[in-house]
Amino acid sequence: MSELVRFGVSLEEGLLRRFDDLIHRRKYTNRSEALRDMIRQELLKQDWEEGGEVAGAITYIYDHHTRELLSRIIDIQHDSQDVIISTQHIHLDHHNCLEIVAVRGRVKKVLQLSDSLRAIKGVRHCALSMTGTAEETLR
Ligand code: NI
Q1: Exposed site from 70, 76, 77, 138, fewest CB < 10 Å?
Q2: Could you list the residue range(s) of the whole structural domain that residue 38 is in?
Q3: Are 34 and 59 found together in one domain?
Q4: Ligand 1 mean position, distance from CA 54 (Å)
């Protein structure tokens, strides 16, 4: 881990009060940790805008009785095998399946995969959660 550096920040009182309210609601115990997370988040956004690499998961639910749905999902997954690390399939009940697709790759390709899965008729609650893979955003 790299060395910690301290620096001072000057803020208007009202802005600081709102910041403290916000971090209290988000359960942070101190300003430093909140600020670190916010900086990491902004760095991630910049990486994504520049097409950086991400890792994450796409989760969705579908009714496996829906006609041709399974073959559409499998076709799309095979076309994206360069970004898919693994797929976990959970039989939720008689009708519904939950799939968790672990992904890693260029943000553009991960977004394309997530959009393609979401757009399939019968796929519900499709959500993409991702983080950067650059070392400075993981620390
Ligand atoms: Ni199933």
Answers
A1: 138
A2: 13-49
A3: no
A4: 27
Residues 59 and 117 in one domain: yes
Whether 58 is covered by a domain: the verdict is: yes
99 C-alpha vs ligand 1 centroid, how far in Å? 8
pLDDT tens digits along 10-68: 999 999 999 999 999 999 999 999 999 999 888 888 888 888 899 999 999 999 998 89
Q: How many domains does the chain have?
A: 2
pTM: 0.76
Q: Which two tokens stand for residue 51?
A: 């097409």
68 and 126 part of one domain: yes
Distance CA 120, CA 123 (A): 6
Listed residues: CB within 5 A of ion ligand 1? 91, 97
